[in-house]
Amino acid sequence: HGRLQEPAMALAQAPPPWLALSLDEARSAHVPHHARPVQETRARPPASFARGEPRFVSETKLITFHSSAGRLGAAREVFDGMGHRDLLAWSAMIGAYATRGIFHEVLALAVSMIGEGVLPDRFLITRILQACAYAEDQRLGSVLHSMAIRRGFMGRVKDVPVGNSVLVMYVKCGELGRARAVFDKMRRRDLGTWNSMIFGCCRSCQWEEARRLLDEMRREGTEPGVVTWNTLISSYARSGDLDVAVDLLGQMEECGVEPDVVTWTSLVSGFVHSDRGDEALQCFIRMRVAGVEPNGMTIACAISACASLKLLRQGSQLHCHAIKIGTVNNVLSGNSLVDMYAKCGEIVAAYRIFNEIPEKDIFSWNSMVAGYAQAGYCGKAYELFCKMESYGIQRNVITWNTMISGYIRNGDDERAFELFQTMESYGVKKDTASWNILIAGSVHNGYFDRALRIFRQMQSVLIKPDYITILSIIPAFANLVAAWKVREIHACIFHHNLEMDGKIANALINAYSKSGDLAGACAVFDRHSSRNTISWNCIIVAHLLHGSPTKVVDYFFKMKQQGVLPDHTTLTAVIRAYGMEGMVSEGREIFLNMDKDYNVTPDLDHYAAMVDLLGRSGRLQEAYAIIDEMPLAPNLTLWESLLTSARMHGNVRLALLAATEMSMIEPNDPRIQVVVSSLQDLAGQSFDVPKVTVHSKERMLGGVESCSTEIRNMVYLFSTGDKVASEHEAAELKLMMIEMGPSMLSAGNGTLEVEEEKEELAGIHCEKLAIIVGIFNSPHFRSIRIIKTARMCNHCHTFAKLVSEKYGRQILIKDPKYLHKFENGNCSCEDYW
User: Where does the DYW domain start and stop, copy by copy (predicted)?
Assistant: First the structure.
């Protein structure tokens, strides 16, 4: 390689003393410990000593001899003791470090070599550039790139390895632009060149460019190999774009390239991390059918899929396979097994696996702590939590979050908040997930206002909420009396630029709708750029809730025009909308053809919608025939739909039949008992309907009806029979009742009033109290918003209509089944509820 040759040195000139020592003598010499041979082997010196080669040549061979035998320290002693080091000596020493992945030593030697005036050849510069790539040392890599150009190592066809090394160095250092410049100037590109550039694009999330390069390499005659395909598939799988990854797998097979274990493992792992466990297992089965043997990583991912789906039998089978291939004691497989058994409720088996893991890591401990916490054994979980540090395992934020989650999930809020407050005193900083756990736990336990306080405190300490934070807190305020809180959360979403997240946009549409703000829901939907089926369902259900069936049908057709396929929820809403419009034939056509047109099999929700559709139009016998002839067992919702229809059309026989069936499904529901009792009184003995035994009147009326309303950002609770707060309001209510007397007498004409007690028995109904207080204590431009625990009676419904007309106020009342929007004397339910 053009190295300078020194004059031959006389063999009589003694080498360094330790070179002539035996192994036993070397132990007592001054050779450093790391330079001594590890094994008790006596090595024969190279034959070059006997041939009388130049000393530095013999020493170079000795470096190679020691490094090949694994004695890197001895090789370095020889190298450091050389009086003259040529390119071959530097190459031997650098190669020894590079082979073992000790890249910082490679780079240090390279700098020393150049400093001593020895320049690398094209073979050595390739190795040093590879070390720069692994160490991400762009500064030295750029110097070597410049040197390669000056020395003519990059201009010829045979210099592809050097060009590839420069390319990989820039890619690993994150300089994709410079890598692309090198790529474009290369006269010849081999498979490694294309693989490196595609890897760089995938690493920088430039997915389209990576796909374009794949097409370009094939046009230029270079067929992608298994590494090329694996690079693309694994990158797409890690990014969560699994549909593209599966499509690439198909192209890979079409090209005649057999997917290997890396390919399949990438897909299985991607599906697991995207919470698509069923598809992960399907992918694993395809791999086994293809004859590819799984490795430890594949088995661990498949077990994780079983854990997410709580498939104990399949997880146990994979456990057996892990034993068969010898990976069961691998910490990765062990951790997955602990998680799987714990989530499947087999906490004893999980603990046995945990104890069998020879070298437990933090994930092992966290999995076991989480298993105990999820099973409700917070004491056991805390016991492990306290033991961790005595075993040399430092608890991390996930460990603390797991314990906090376990306590709050099991109702011990005080202990959860205590751990939350003390975790930073142990050197563990709270993260977003720590706050999310408290918010979600508070919402789950019904402490909505506390969740909002935690949410505000989180922002005050400059912790940025993520989409999980928002999705945890929004459902708590998706009601009529929390509209201003929904707007507050929306402002936070907008401030942190989270509105573009599809799940958050959908949750906002739902929250605005349920809080009575249909315009707000429509505004979010209109700005939603990536609408999916759920997005369309949210806005369709919102208009259905607000009594706008025409809009429901309009959105349904727009949805289909934009190529979004309707699903179960869409079709249920559309059938109900047609029922509200009185368009029986259109709704029936959707129902009869949904399997053929939309690949949706009718279920109980669709049958209930059809009963509602026919019942609204007075076709009660057809509605009953639907229930009688359906292939599924009718549920409470179906009979309730028939009861509503029969009640509205004054059919006592069908109403009593439906109520009787409801009482058989829910025998302990006092409201159903009241309905049955009232209908039996109305029916007398004239109808052949089985008599149902009902509980005593006192037991049936044990619950007090209540409602809540929001006035000037304060929520007030009213119960049936309460007194009005002020004399003025009491007098006004009495006057209103007198004025509306004639109109109230016609309330419920033609219907069966069966559900609530008369006011002379139970007292004034709570929604009337809430309405009158709202009229005199809230601004005229604000709507009156009320949430009620029971269905509105006919009298209260008529009262709300008349008040809305007399005072020009919008009144929103949400009962368990309907949202009533009263305006100008009309209700959005069109008096059918």
Answer: 755-833
Q: Is 542 exposed, middle or buried (0-12, 13-18, 19+ CB in 10 A)?
A: buried
Summarised one tens digit per residue, pLDDT across range 99-135 is 898 999 999 999 999 888 889 998 999 999 999 999 9
Residue pair 682/758 in contact by the 8 Å Cβ criterion: no
Per the document, the length of the chain is 833
Unique residue bearing structure tokens 């739909």: 641
**At residue 740, what is the residue type?**
M
| Mean model confidence pLDDT for the chain | 83
What is the per-residue pLDDT for 302?
Answer: 94
> What is residue 28's predicted lDDT score, i.e. its pLDDT?
35
pLDDT band at residue 734 using 50, 70 and 90 as cut-offs: low
pTM value is 0.69
Both tokens of 531, joined, read 């609408």
Tokens of 805: 């007309």
Q: What confidence tens digit (pLDDT) does each residue in 664-681 have?
A: 998 888 888 888 887 887
Q: Which residues contact 617 (CB under 8 A, 6 or more apart)?
A: 579, 582, 584
Measured CA to CA, the distance from residue 205 to residue 203 in angstroms comes to 5
* C-beta separation of 439 from 469 below 8 A: yes
Q: Provide the strand spans (E) within 732-800.
A: 784-788
| Residue 623: closest CA among 656, 603, 646, 601 | 646
Distance CA 505, CA 539 (A): 11
DSSP 84: -
Find all residues with CB under 8 Å of 284, minimum gap 6, and list them.
264, 268, 294, 298, 301, 302, 305
C-beta of residue 427 within 8 angstroms of C-beta of residue 399: no
The pLDDT, as a whole number, for residue 833 is 74
Sign of CA dihedral 460, 463, 464, 468: negative
What is the SS3 assignment for 402? helix
What sign does the dihedral 196-198-201-203 (CA atoms) show?
negative
Residue holding tokens 């009298």? 795
Q: Is the dihedral of CA 370, 374, 377, 382 positive or negative?
A: positive
Return the HEC string of 650-675: CCHHHHHHHHHHHHHHCCCCHHHHHH
All residues at 6 or more sequence positions from 667 whose CB lies less than 8 Å from its CB, including other chains:
none
Do 165 and 190 meet the contact criterion of CB atoms below 8 Å apart? no
Confidence of residue 5 (pLDDT cuts 50, 70, 90): very low
State CA 371 to chain mean position distance.
Answer: 20
pLDDT over 90 (residue 222):
no
Contacts of 230 (CB under 8 A, 6+ apart): 260, 262, 263, 266
What is the rounded CA–CA span in Å between residue 180 and residue 311? 47
Helices and strands (H and E) in the chain: how many: 45, 6
798 in Cβ contact with 743 (< 8 Å): yes
Confidence of residue 315 (pLDDT cuts 50, 70, 90): very high
In 10 A of CB 688, how many CB atoms?
7
**pLDDT for residue 630:** 92
Other beta carbons within 10 angstroms of residue 601's beta carbon come to: 9
What tokens does 39 get? 């094994």
Helix-helix angle 331-343:347-356, to 10 degrees: 170
Closest C-alpha to 590, from 614, 608, 612, 606: 606
DSSP for 531-558, written as a single string: --HHHHHHHHHHHHHTT-HHHHHHHHHH
| CA proximity to 519, closest of 486, 489, 559, 470 | 486
